[in-house]
Amino acid sequence: MTSPGLPVSPAVARVNRPDSGPLARDTMAFVLAGGRGSRLMELTDRRAKPAVYFGGTWRIIDFALSNALNSGIRRICVATQYKAHSLIRHLQSGWNFFRQERKEGFDILPASQRVSEDMWYVGTADAVYQNIDIIEGYDPRYTIILAGDHVYKMDCEPMLRQLVDQKADVIVSCLEVPRMEATGFGVMHVDENDRIIDFVEKPADPPGIPGNPDFALASMGIYVFETRFMLEELRRDAADPDSSHDFGKNIIPYLVKNGKAVAHRFTSSCVRSHNEPDAYWRDVGTLDAYHEANIDLTAVIPSLDIFERDWPIWTYAEIAPPAKFVHDLEGRRGQAVSSLVSAGCIVSGGALSNSVLFAGVRVNSFSRIESSVVLPDVDIGRRARLHNTIIDRGVRIPPGLVVGEDPELDAKRFRRTDKGIVLITQNMIDRMSE
């Protein structure tokens, strides 16, 4: 789905989603997109994690932005920091359709020392605090803080309604996860009404959910505030020299102890079609998780329905010709099975299975690609055999290269995870010839 000339109507019908109300129209979405994503290794050497490609067509940030847009929110700010050029270029190309005369706005906010000449964003709360003047200029009644580096489909309206109906100071969106799988999250300890009574960061023994003790509520890093209250809290936190100026570490724990913080169950706002029985949310912050989430899309019935037309994921798509498959000889047949192949790709006598090809990839004769994520503009040489790989943008795979069959050799030449996923960059290819 390319970027729209006009935004999608917030009242469009969809599965498992309540009707939109007016609250989203008086809301600003503030998207935090400054993270490096260091666990993605060389994949984020040239781009921030939110700018990493996903699913054959999108960047990761497109999911958070589309959730806000599809919910009816028309004022969006994106705070960037780490290696932001690729991200900013994408936002300018694909998200430039907002119009001031419709009371809409889309602001890209690099760390620009607006508060102090020697301060970059030092935490998630500080990223919002340093742009208070812009928020006050729009004067939204509510603000939703979104993380720009997760893959999910979510309607923001139920969280806004919960804030108003329960007269809360903050609503924290949470995932229900098996209790002992929550040790890597910030976990909300709630009472029977989902009021948060304690916030525990990466606990060894996570507190269970009342009535469902085998599960815990893990924070998704999504928060809803009444805007004026949020700005007061940001100013209070900014004046605290002992604070890390972070929502998860400082703002939310403070409100748990001194205000009314309420958990929101993601299952109440997750948008899913009839093909998605479970609420889908992924942090694709490691090479293994990134590879798995992409390859999951090649399943006959994937966990994330990217073909759902009622909740489109908007993005910028370059003008490109259709994908092309050529040659029909035994051993030299252009074909793809259980794969996503994007526009501009040419599969020229090669074969791929359970793989994702982004735009402009060329697969040359006699090559075999299995369970691989191939970013844009890659050229795969003849007779190459690639299995369980992630190939960075613009890489030229030499003819005859074999990856995924010799773990020791793969680890010497490329970045290989313990689960056998191999990341290939052009620098790694170049070092092979030294």
TrEMBL record:
<keyword id="KW-0119">Carbohydrate metabolism</keyword>
<dbReference type="InterPro" id="IPR005835">
    <property type="entry name" value="NTP_transferase_dom"/>
</dbReference>
<keyword id="KW-0808">Transferase</keyword>
<dbReference type="InterPro" id="IPR005836">
    <property type="entry name" value="ADP_Glu_pyroP_CS"/>
</dbReference>
<comment type="similarity">
    <text>Belongs to the bacterial/plant glucose-1-phosphate adenylyltransferase family.</text>
</comment>
<dbReference type="GO" id="GO:0005524">
    <property type="term" value="F:ATP binding"/>
</dbReference>
<keyword id="KW-0321">Glycogen metabolism</keyword>
<feature type="binding site">
    <location>
        <begin position="201"/>
        <end position="202"/>
    </location>
    <ligand>
        <name>alpha-D-glucose 1-phosphate</name>
    </ligand>
</feature>
<feature type="region of interest" description="Disordered">
    <location>
        <begin position="1"/>
        <end position="20"/>
    </location>
</feature>
<feature type="domain" description="Nucleotidyl transferase">
    <location>
        <begin position="29"/>
        <end position="298"/>
    </location>
</feature>
<feature type="binding site">
    <location>
        <position position="219"/>
    </location>
    <ligand>
        <name>alpha-D-glucose 1-phosphate</name>
    </ligand>
</feature>
<comment type="function">
    <text>Involved in the biosynthesis of ADP-glucose, a building block required for the elongation reactions to produce glycogen. Catalyzes the reaction between ATP and alpha-D-glucose 1-phosphate (G1P) to produce pyrophosphate and ADP-Glc.</text>
</comment>
<comment type="pathway">
    <text>Glycan biosynthesis; glycogen biosynthesis.</text>
</comment>
<dbReference type="InterPro" id="IPR011831">
    <property type="entry name" value="ADP-Glc_PPase"/>
</dbReference>
<dbReference type="InterPro" id="IPR029044">
    <property type="entry name" value="Nucleotide-diphossugar_trans"/>
</dbReference>
<keyword id="KW-0547">Nucleotide-binding</keyword>
<feature type="domain" description="Glucose-1-phosphate adenylyltransferase/Bifunctional protein GlmU-like C-terminal hexapeptide">
    <location>
        <begin position="321"/>
        <end position="424"/>
    </location>
</feature>
<dbReference type="InterPro" id="IPR056818">
    <property type="entry name" value="GlmU/GlgC-like_hexapep"/>
</dbReference>
<keyword id="KW-0548">Nucleotidyltransferase</keyword>
<dbReference type="GO" id="GO:0005978">
    <property type="term" value="P:glycogen biosynthetic process"/>
</dbReference>
<feature type="binding site">
    <location>
        <position position="186"/>
    </location>
    <ligand>
        <name>alpha-D-glucose 1-phosphate</name>
    </ligand>
</feature>
<dbReference type="InterPro" id="IPR023049">
    <property type="entry name" value="GlgC_bac"/>
</dbReference>
<keyword id="KW-0320">Glycogen biosynthesis</keyword>
<comment type="subunit">
    <text>Homotetramer.</text>
</comment>
<protein>
    <recommendedName>
        <fullName>Glucose-1-phosphate adenylyltransferase</fullName>
        <ecNumber>2.7.7.27</ecNumber>
    </recommendedName>
</protein>
<dbReference type="Pfam" id="PF00483">
    <property type="entry name" value="NTP_transferase"/>
</dbReference>
<feature type="site" description="Could play a key role in the communication between the regulatory and the substrate sites">
    <location>
        <position position="81"/>
    </location>
</feature>
<dbReference type="GO" id="GO:0008878">
    <property type="term" value="F:glucose-1-phosphate adenylyltransferase activity"/>
</dbReference>
<dbReference type="InterPro" id="IPR011004">
    <property type="entry name" value="Trimer_LpxA-like_sf"/>
</dbReference>
<dbReference type="Pfam" id="PF24894">
    <property type="entry name" value="Hexapep_GlmU"/>
</dbReference>
<feature type="site" description="Could play a key role in the communication between the regulatory and the substrate sites">
    <location>
        <position position="120"/>
    </location>
</feature>
<keyword id="KW-0067">ATP-binding</keyword>
<feature type="binding site">
    <location>
        <position position="121"/>
    </location>
    <ligand>
        <name>alpha-D-glucose 1-phosphate</name>
    </ligand>
</feature>
